[in-house]
Specification:
single chain, 274 residues, alpha+beta, Diaminopimelate Epimerase, Chain A, domain 1, 2 domains, 17-stranded mixed β-sheet, 19 strands
C-alpha cells in the first residue's frame, strides 16, 4: 500500500496527516502503530481527514499505540491551518468525536481554536468513584523521594490529571506517567501533567499523553492545566503554558469556554509505503 500524506507539528507535538476526502484509505491498528513508530516514520498522533456534510472536515485521531483519541488540540490547529492553505478561509470548523471545534487563522502560522468547556464532574472525566476532582489526593514522589499529594482532574475532550509542583524537573514522568495513566481510578486512562506556576500568567509543564508517552507539547494538556490553575486560584483567566519549544496562550471566558492559541509548522509532503 502506497499513499501520500503530510507531516505537521505544534511546538514539536507532531502528526502524520492523511487526507481521505478524495480517496478512502483504511488502516489497521497494526499499520497505525507502524506509521507512528519513529523507527519507521514517527509521530505522536496520526490524523485522518474525512469529508463532512456539516463542517469543513471530520477528523479521526489515533495515538501512537493505535488507540483512538476523541480530542487533540494541537492536531486540530494543524489541520485547520492545512485546510486554510487549501481554501484560504480564515475560519475553519472541524468535526471530531468530541463535537465541533472552531479555529481561526490569525496570522502566519498562528492558529486559535475554541476547545469548549472543561468538565470536572467525576462521571464526566471519567473517574471510577465519586471523589473531589479538584484534589484527588494522589501520592507521587519526586526524584529525592519527597512525597506530593494532590492532582486535579479535568476533561477537555479527554481526561487529564494535573499536579502543581515546585520543580517539574524533579519528577520522573516516564515512571509516574504510565502508572497513573493506567490506574484503576481512570477507566478510560488519563493524560498526566506536572506543572510549575511561574506566576499567575505563566505555567511551565511536562506532559505524559495516554497512548503516546512523553510529548514535547500537548494542546489539551495546556487547556487542562490552565483550567486547573484557575479553579485552584493559582493562575488568571489568560495564561501562557510553556513547553520546551515554546508556549501556548490559553484564555478562559466568563462561561468557562477555553481558547487555545499558538503556532503550527509548515506542511511537509511525505510518501508512505506499507
Amino acid at each position: 500500500m502506497n499513499f501520500k500524506a503530510f507531516k505537521m507539528d505544534g511546538l514539536g507535538n507532531d502528526f502524520v496527516i492523511i487526507d481521505c476526502r478524495s480517496e478512502e484509505i483504511n488502516l489497521s491498528k497494526k499499520q497505525v502503530i507502524k506509521i507512528c513508530n519513529r523507527d519507521f516514520l514517527g509521530c505522536d498522533q496520526l490524523i485522518i481527514i474525512n469529508k463532512s456534510n456539516n463542517a469543513d472536515a471530520e477528523l479521526i485521531f489515533y495515538n501512537s499505540d493505535g488507540s483512538e483519541s476523541y480530542a487533540c488540540g494541537n492536531g486540530t490547529r494543524c489541520v485547520a491551518f492545512f485546510i486554510f492553505k487549501e481554501t484560504k478561509k480564515s475560519i475553519i470548523n472541524l468535526k471530531t468525536k468530541n463535537g465541533f471545534l472552531k479555529s481561526e487563522i490569525l496570522d502566519k502560522n498562528l492558529v486559535e481554536t475554541v476547545i469548549g468547556k472543561a468538565k470536572t464532574n467525576w462521571r464526566d472525566i471519567p473517574i471510577s468513584k465519586n471523589i473531589n476532582t479538584k484534589n484527588l489526593n494522589i501520592k507521587i514522589e519526586d526524584n529525592n523521594k519527597n512525597l506530593i499529594i494532590g492532582g486535579t482532574a479535568v476533561n477537555v475532550g479527554n481526561p487529564h490529571v494535573v499536579f502543581f509542583v515546585d520543580n517539574i524537573d524533579s519528577f520522573d514522568l516516564k515512571k509516574i506517567g504510565p502508572m497513573l495513566e493506567k490506574d484503576e481510578l481512570f477507566p478510560e486512562r488519563c493524560n498526566v501533567t506536572i506543572a510549575k506556576i511561574e506566576n499567575k500568567k505563566s505555567i511551565n509543564v511536562k506532559v505524559w499523553e495516554r497512548g503516546v508517552g512523553l510529548t514535547k507539547a500537548c494542546g489539551s494538556a495546556a487547556c487542562a492545566t490552565a483550567f486547573a490553575g484557575k479553579i485552584n486560584g493559582l493562575s488568571e483567566n489568560k495564561v501562557k503554558i510553556n513547553f520546551k519549544l515554546g508556549s501556548l496562550s490559553i484564555s478562559i471566558d466568563a462561561e468557562d469556554y477555553i481558547r487555545m492559541k499558538g503556532p503550527v509548522s509548515e506542511i511537509e509532503d511525505i510518501d508512505i509505503k506499507l
